[in-house]
């Protein structure tokens, strides 16, 4: 499992570093999709395992071809339709939908090398479902999705096992999508469920408008608090003993002295490690784990920024997250410990700097034990 996760992380790094130079569908296939097929254990150069431009005749229409057909034991187990990485496609209207019922194959994949959508025929036999049962971005794949993807690996492939979980995965995904839409823009029906439980009067148009704003704010606060509490609970349960709500590998000095204005006495100000900072930290860990033991990567939170350190050593900074202002930045260090900040609009932007982050541990291989200048707190 760990080796499979490492290979996925390496492919994600490859996608992030190369996609700006990829201009065509063929280039997307060669750079992203063929390595993905290899990651699943199939030999892309063996025509008994991977057949490019596989003929899938449709009725009287001859010579129709699917981009790839993957074979196991002389039987096609997965057909793949590819798009250029910048393109999106509706699977229902794609060639993949038309090919599915002509081939003796239970699974289909639509991908642009970044988005991967796996389909089967849960609703009607030999008719490809309109919605995928497994859908992920290779650059933001979750552990449970890796577990499901691994079932397609040549060494583990089991049609029965995949189908047993496909229905659950499909409906879980659909429910999550509905919840996301409702939390972002609640429908009247969804909102009325809550209004009826907290408001005794009639749900007039004005009342609904007022509660829409209340719901949006309260649900946002709830989700942030809930996620943070769950993270703390999971991490605390893995510690032998603890006296505070520390997140492993995250050092958070709950209060730090800061200088008050106009010569006033120092006051204590609480440091709040945000979900966004935690997610960014784990993005950095996922990048670096292909090179060093992830247990050596520590986040130390401060009032202005979060530092990510090697071996919890201030002399070994990997990066900093400057997420407290209107604009967010990641600070990267060179071999002289100079910090350069780069703006990030979302967490995916962190992966753009994978190459720089992977260089950083090398800077400290010959670090002296004494006499090194610490990075100053700005």
Architecture overview:
With 378 residues, this protein is an alpha+beta fold. The protein contains nine helices and 14 strands. The chain has helices at residues 2-18, 25-39, 95-100, 143-150, 159-184, 188-198, 205-237, 275-288, 354-359; strands spanning 50-55, 65-72, 75-82, 108-111, 115-119, 134-137, 250-252, 255-258, 267-270, 297-301, 306-310, 317-322, 329-333, 339-343. The strands form three sheets. The chain has a six-stranded mixed sheet with strand order 1-2-3-4-5-6. Strands 7-10-11-12-13-14 form a six-stranded mixed sheet, covered by helices on one side. It has a two-stranded antiparallel sheet with strand order 8-9. A hairpin with an 8-residue loop joins strand 8 (255-258) and strand 9 (267-270). The longest helix is centred in the middle third of the chain and has 33 residues, at 205-237. The model is unreliable at 238-248, 252-269 and 368-378 (pLDDT under 50).
Outline the fold blueprint.
Layout: H1 2-18, H2 25-39, E1 50-55, E2 65-72, E3 75-82, H3 95-100, E4 108-111, E5 115-119, E6 134-137, H4 143-150, H5 159-184, H6 188-198, H7 205-237, E7 250-252, E8 255-258, E9 267-270, H8 275-288, E10 297-301, E11 306-310, E12 317-322, E13 329-333, E14 339-343, H9 354-359
Parallel strand pairs: 3-4, 7-10
Antiparallel strand pairs: 1-2, 2-3, 4-5, 5-6, 8-9, 10-11, 11-12, 12-13, 13-14
């Amino acid at each position: 499992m760990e080796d499979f996760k490492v290979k996925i992380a390496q492919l994600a790094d490859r996608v992030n570093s190369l996609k700006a130079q990829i201009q065509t569908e063929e280039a997307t296939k060669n750079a992203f999709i063929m390595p993905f097929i290899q990651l699943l254990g199939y030999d892309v150069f063996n025509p008994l395992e991977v057949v490019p431009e596989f003929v899938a005749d449709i009725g009287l229409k001859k010579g129709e071809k699917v981009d790839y057909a993957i074979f196991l034991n002389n039987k096609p187990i997965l057909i793949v339709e590819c798009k250029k990485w910048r393109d999106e496609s509706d699977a229902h209207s794609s060639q993949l939908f038309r090919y599915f019922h002509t081939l003796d194959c239970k699974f289909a994949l639509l991908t642009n090398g970044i988005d991967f959508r796996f389909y089967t025929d849960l609703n009607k036999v030999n008719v490809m479902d309109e919605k995928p049962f497994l859908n992920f971005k290779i650059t933001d794949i979750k552990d449970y999705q890796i577990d499901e993807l691994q079932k397609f690996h040549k060494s583990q492939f089991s049609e029965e096992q995949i189908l047993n979980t496909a229905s659950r995965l499909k409906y879980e995904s659909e429910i999550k999508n509905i919840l996301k839409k409702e939390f972002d823009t609640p429908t009247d029906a969804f909102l009325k469920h809550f209004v009826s439980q907290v408001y005794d009067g009639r749900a007039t148009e004005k009342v609904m408008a007022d509660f829409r704003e209340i719901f949006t704010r309260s649900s946002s606060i709830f989700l942030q608090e809930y996620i943070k509490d769950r993270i703390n609970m999971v991490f605390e349960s893995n510690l032998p003993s603890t006296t505070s709500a520390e997140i492993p590998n995250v050092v958070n000095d709950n209060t730090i002295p800061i200088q008050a204005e106009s010569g006033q006495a120092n006051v204590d100000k609480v440091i709040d490690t945000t979900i966004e900072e935690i997610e960014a930290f784990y993005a950095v860990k996922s990048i670096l784990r292909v090179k060093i033991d992830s247990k050596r990567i520590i986040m130390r939170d401060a009032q202005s920024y979060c530092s990510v350190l090697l071996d919890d050593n201030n002399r070994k900074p990997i990066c900093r997250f400057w997420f407290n202002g209107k604009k967010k930045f990641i600070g990267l260090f060179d071999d002289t410990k100079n910090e350069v900040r780069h703006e990030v609009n979302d967490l995916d932007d962190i992966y753009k700097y994978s190459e720089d982050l992977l260089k950083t541990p090398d800077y400290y291989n010959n670090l002296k034990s004494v006499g090194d200048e610490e990075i100053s707190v700005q």
